[in-house]
Automatic annotation (TrEMBL):
Gene Ontology molecular-function annotations: catalytic activity; molybdenum ion binding; pyridoxal phosphate binding
Gene3D superfamilies xref list: PK beta-barrel domain-like
Residue stretches making up the MOSC domain: 135-274
Name of the protein described by the UniProt record: MOSC domain-containing protein
Organism: Arthrobacter mobilis
Any Pfam family: MOSC
InterPro entries (alphabetical): MoCF_Sase_C, MOCOS_middle, Pyrv_Knase-like_insert_dom_sf
UniProt feature coiled coil, ranges: none
Amino acid sequence: MPQNSSALSGTIDSLYYYPVKGLSPQRLDEVQLEAGRAFPHDRRYALARRDGRYVPGARQLLGKREFHVLMKDERLAAVRSVYDPDTDVLQLFPAAPAPGTVAGAPAVLTADLSTAAGRQALVGYVAELLELPADRLPVFAEEDGLRFPDLLRTGEREMQAVSIINLASVRELGERAGVTVDPLRFRANIHLEGLEPFAERALPGSVLECGDVRLEVFQETARCAATEVNLGTAKRDLPMLNLLYAHLGHSNMGVYAYVTAGGRLATGHAVHARGV
């Protein structure tokens, strides 16, 4: 690890969690983290492929290809989700309302995910959105205490990882490629500001400190075709993997970390990297 890694510092620009894997994020002003746990409610639910390997209740270690995600199903970006963790109610709205649509129009779906009826309603809506045949309806996925992140599974600990993106790196990529890159394409939990572009590549093996919170960074994040999808139009409009390889020589953007000490994170908080 480079010697200057301990001097890396920045601030939390924004925080996000993704209640349903593949659907849109919820922005947070603050979050209370626990050691060994992911963001509360992050990737708590998923929609598994009917013809995939997911078995309800089996607590499997499965990769993203077993689920309906933007990598294969860009139409998922056509809806904006609003989740209430207190009631377990999920609402879906058009991500880009049709011209002439009245602002504040009702949700296209309101589903109580604590009930079988609400889960089936979500499954049915997504099946219609993706134009899936009757024998390919998604399987609603939830595993008590586990999450459904995008890591290749080597153990349950990875299922509790948090993802971090350096906004300066996203901007630098966009400048090199001559395009505007929305950082939400990378679906991270923590957006950092104030670091040099690509400074995060030195972070694996270090610990990020933010108040009482400690985040042990353990690897860079290799990207997939989900990043090609425009989150407003649900169209694949950027060859992101090609851009990453052409301008950076690799497909990485961001890092993964484990929460090793809990506490409160909030926008504007300072973050410092310390060597292990």
